[in-house]
Specification:
It is built from two helices and eight strands; from the N terminus they run βββββαβαββ. By secondary structure, it is α+β, with helices and mostly antiparallel strands. The strands form two sheets. A six-stranded mixed sheet has the order 1-2-3-8-6-7, with helices on one face. Strands 4-5 form a two-stranded antiparallel ribbon. Strand 4 and strand 5 form a beta hairpin.
Length: 127
């Protein structure tokens, strides 16, 4: 099976040896996104809501580059540094999946890249 690398100039460049996303067949695998604002290059650290919003925007930019939207997302993986923020993260996340939300898991981890509080990856499918 052939794979195609997807990179959006609107989303932060990878900070390691990985691609923003890979299209394989009719599936798109989007790497975990953290709250970096591509325009400024800065981490968003004002609140967990703002962090989550930036993460979702970054995912959206990559989906858009591939010709998809959040409606195409089948599954998300959410990694958080503090499960105490779950409700606040969920509030922002839910705005992007108001109908037929994807499958997902939310996992508390000891650390995330650059010391952020939330990272989200997703898998989407082309129609």
């Amino acid at each position: 099976m052939m794979k195609k690398i997807i990179n959006s100039p609107k989303a932060p460049a990878p900070i390691g040896p990985y691609s923003q996303a890979i299209k394989a067949g009719n599936t798109l695998y989007v790497s975990g996104q953290i709250p970096i604002d591509q325009n400024s290059g800065q981490l968003i650290e004002t609140s967990i809501e703002d962090e989550t919003e930036q993460v979702m925007k970054n995912l959206g930019y990559i989906l858009e580059e591939a010709g998809l939207t959040f409606k195409h997302v089948l599954k998300c993986s959410i990694f958080v540094s503090d499960m105490g923020n779950f409700a606040r993260i969920n509030e922002v996340y839910g705005k992007y999946f108001q109908e037929n939300p994807p499958a997902r898991e939310t996992v508390e981890v000891s650390r995330l890249p650059k010391g952020v509080n939330v990272e989200i990856s997703c898998i989407a499918q082309f129609s």
